[in-house]
Design goal:
Number of helices: 5
Structural class: alpha+beta
Radius of gyration: 18 Å
Helix content: 25-40%
Strand content: 15-25%
Order of helices and strands: HEEHHEEHEEEHEE
């Protein structure tokens, strides 16, 4: 438990990380918020700031899409503990999914939160998973799914000739799964 407390102090900027000798002071005003609408708005803004990169990744993925692909699932993977971290990753369907996904490997990750020596990147609000007043992972999946629909459209996903959807890992996100528009509604 002492290690967990130390990590929380590092992330909130109340202690110096002795391994880098740099003070980490990246506390977000919405850390540990119980205000769901404020969190939704902040998360949507963070995702919006990364839309250009996601659109470029999707365009690269569409250009490299193997012929044997039968479907595209954009999956929002919230952290196992609902602390605010998550990844948005593309998964292809079809014969030999390992080969399919490897072919588009450089473009599969649309968004990811990471803990670095400088703090968490990008700056999404963090939560104590035991005291939140709402389901953080449900909110992450629903907000990210809205964002995926936008970047999918901006990347030209409507021209893709296989079925596509956005969904939350482990059933998170009460508004998912959602179909993404594709050519002829494939």
């Amino acid at each position: 438990m002492e290690v967990l407390s130390w990590i929380r102090r590092i992330l909130r900027g109340t202690q110096t990380d002795t391994t880098t000798a740099a003070s980490v002071s990246h506390a977000d005003p919405l850390d540990d918020t119980r205000d769901e609408p404020a969190y939704r708005a902040r998360l949507a803004a963070v995702l919006s700031n990364h839309s250009g990169e996601a659109v470029a990744s999707l365009r690269g993925l569409f250009d490299a899409l193997p012929d044997k692909t039968t479907g595209i699932d954009v999956m929002v993977h919230p952290a196992q503990e609902p602390d605010g971290q998550f990844t948005v990753m593309v998964h292809l369907s079809g014969p030999d999914i390992y080969v399919l996904n490897k072919a588009v490997g450089p473009w599969r990750e649309l968004f990811a939160t990471r803990i670095t020596a400088a703090g968490r990147e990008p700056r999404v609000p963090m939560f104590d998973p035991f005291v939140t007043a709402f389901s953080v992972n449900d909110v992450i999946v629903d907000v990210a799914a809205d964002w995926v629909e936008t970047v999918w459209r901006d990347a030209g996903g409507g021209a893709v000739a296989v079925r596509a959807s956005v969904l939350g890992d482990e059933g998170y996100g009460p508004t998912t799964p959602r179909r993404l528009p594709t050519k002829d509604g494939a």
